[in-house]
Give the backbone structure.
Amino acid sequence: MPIFAESGRQWAILIGTNPSHVVPGLVASRGVIPTEFLDAYDALDWFLNPDMHGALPKEQLFFLADAEATEANVERALNEVANKAEAEDSVLFYFSGHATTFNDPGELQLYDSPVGGGDLTADPHQGVVGAQDLVRWLNNLRVGKAVAILDSGGYGMYRACEELAPGRFVLSSINGITLSRNGFITWYVRRALQKLGAKATLAILHRVLVQAEAAWVERNHLPLYIYLRGNLK
């Protein structure tokens, strides 16, 4: 199953961020560019490089990085894609950042998430994309194929993927780790796409990640629990 559109239009939502209390934005971080921003920037190349997908019209590409990746902006992008993508189209949702690791219901943390920020009066479920909400969004799209690549997604996301409809896929890990410039998943997906371009399939990417994780665990004794959910048949 190729990750990019084989017919129809390609839509993409690319998110890379930390909650603001973790890394307080590119300007305030005194020149230290967060890995999550770099991940999203490198994922953007998948839709600029003619050897991969190639350029997308601006109305089909949503790039939300650092302080732009707020709950309101992400919700706006999700709604726009849901309203405009058609049956023959394909969607890629990419996220680099933090997720709640083992606790339910499972959430992807956006820039305006207060979790861990010390404000006990804040709603811990603001500034997030809920795992079940993301799966519901994927399932409700009119498109034939929708792929989510999450670096990383956490156990709540893994559990929510039990409800994935046909043609919906999630490639992620329960734990996350940074490798130099990129997160683990983005590092190896990026390298695979550089070699294979649009020929890269979900099965190939999953196999690359599982092999890389095995080597990582052998050296560091820290499993990441790579997973691919969805029916590839």
Q: What stands out?
A: The mean pLDDT is 89.
